[in-house]
Amino acid sequence: MVKITYISHAGEARLVEAASGQSAMEAAVHHNIAGIDGDCGGVIACGTCHVHVDGTWTDRLAPPGEKERDMLAYIDNARPNSRLCCQIVLGEELDGLVLHLPIAQH
Amino acid sequence: MDIAVSDIERARSIPLDKIDVSAPDLYLRDAAHPYFARLRNEAPVHYCRESLYGPYWSVTKFNDIVEIDTNHKVFSSDASVGSFVLDDTTLNPVEGGIYLPNFLGMDPPKHDIHRQTVSPIVAPQNLANLEGLIRQRTRGVLDGLPVGVPFNWVDRVSIELTTMMLATLFDFPFDERRKLTRWSDVVTTRPGDGVVDSWEQRNQELYECAAYFQRLWAERAAAAPRPDLISMLAHSPAMRTMSPEEFLGTLALLIVGGNDTTRNSMSGGVLAHHLFPAEWSRVKADRALIPNMVSEIIRWQTPIAHMRRTALADFEFRGQHIRKGDKVVMWYLSGNRDDSVIDRPFDFVADRPRARHHLSFGFGIHRCLGNRLAELQLRILWEEVFERFSAIEVVGTPVRIPSNLVRGYADLPVVVHA
User: Fold this and answer.
1) CA B58 to chain centre
2) Who's near B42: CB < 8 A, 6+ residues apart?
3) What is the rounded CA–CA span in Å between residue B143 and residue A50?
């Protein structure tokens, strides 16, 4: 199991345990994390699982592919540490990952 | 659903290569479903050789549509190679049509710059500012409805609320807001569909629209920037130098996108509740279901029945050979009825699991820009409806629009009960 913390825009933290191999979007939807929609089901087609990755975790993730970069270009409140969390596949190396949620998905 | 038996039989017996799901009368009668069902089963990527719009491919299954929609490098929206709607006359100078270029009809990188210019108007922070105004207007419109007497829901509620919203986004003279409704209808029609009688009339009305907005633009350009769409365009480094054609094309996109779509979901939701009355009681008793129900209404209605792309290269897809230059139509209406992805897709289910997983907003870089505003307007409408009414009864046959693009209603006769 991998521990992830989702921090809402209001600053409220929720720690969940997710199975390895799941995406951070799937884990969020499974645990009813408000603020992650995942409308397209994880195929980089909607941009509604946007997160800001905490601190040094940004550099420890595999970099976004072309499709993800294309979608991130359209997202409100995008920052250099923005990711679509359907593309963050959880493994033991990501145990302790912290993700911040934007004010809302668009 | 009152699809004529003849359509069900015809859809079963007609040779596959003779199926043309673009015929506008299918939408007037809401009779396209059995043809789509046959295509999904037997020819999910289907070539129609002859139609009013020339030859075209139909993509009818949910996941295939997502695949085409997200492959913008091969399947272009750009006006220079085609259009994003099947009918070339809607946005291009073909037959009697005029050129209405806009960012939905552009590929990156120009698309990105234009889209990002207008995007802040529907960004989360701005929607929070609009919520109070939307609620106040919704209450006003609903409180003004006659109780126990038949009226047309489309005109009194759907058009009224969406047109007021659009007037606010443009900061358009409020008393003249029905001009926006008219222009919205004119953009998506061709002569003979009941809106205009000739190409000359269509063009003349669109030029009037351009002239009207030109005046607003000049006023806004001369004043300090304000948070309305016209001011945003007039002060944007990327868009203030647009040609008159591009200006009118962009307006056409914003007017139709912000108007026809939510209008028809506002009407479709009433029809859905009429056909599935148990859902009304369920949501009225548990208002927390409203956001989920709103997504379900948008799926069930599918107010934009299709979007089209043009192939930039030969492409093998599901065993079919799509050639460079071919028109490829993604039938969202069909994908939203695909039972391999959506359980009991013809039913309206207010608490449907994963209701947000629908095609009505499209997917990929051209995904609906105003989707969250649409959801907000619909949520507030239904919160206020359930607060006031014990029932909304549909008391006559809905009159539908003969369009394969805008799936909607001209008349929905209802009686509301206190």
Assistant:
1) 18
2) B16
3) 39
Distance CA(B229)–CA(A97), nearest Å, equals 40
Strand residues in B265-317 grouped as ranges (E): 306-311, 315-317
Would the pLDDT of B3 be above 70?
A: no
Cα nearest neighbour of A72 on chain B: B365
Q: Identify whether A94 is part of a domain.
A: yes
Q: Which residue of chain A is at minimal alpha-carbon distance from B376?
A: A106
> What CATH fold (topology level) applies to the domain B5-40+83-301+363-417?
Cytochrome p450 (1.10.630)
- Its ipTM equals 0.91
Cβ within 8 Å, pair A67-B70: yes
B70 has a chain A CB within 8 A of its CB:
yes
User: For residue A13, what is the domain's CATH number?
Assistant: 3.10.20.30
Q: Which residues of A touch B361 (CB under 8 A)?
A: 39, 46
Q: Chain B 99-158, CB below 8 Å of chain A: which residues?
A: 108, 112, 115-116, 119-120, 122-125, 127
Task: Write the pLDDT tens digit of every residue in B186-198.
Answer: 999 999 888 999 9
Q: Which residue has the tokens 């989702």?
A: A6
Enclosing domain of residue A22: 2-63+77-100
CA separation for the pair B145, B141 (Å, rounded): 7
On whether residue A84 sits in a domain, the answer given is: yes
Q: Does B43 lie at the interface with A, CB-CB under 8 angstroms?
A: no
Q: How many domains does chain A have?
A: 1
Which residues in chain B have Cβ-Cβ distances shorter than 8 Å to A68? none
Name the residue ranges covered by the structural domains of chain B: 5-40+83-301+363-417
Residue A42 domain flag: yes
- The mean per-residue pLDDT over the stretch B33-59 comes to 98
Residue A70 located in a structural domain: no
Q: Do A76 and B123 touch (CB under 8 A)?
A: yes
Percent of chain B with pLDDT over 70: 99
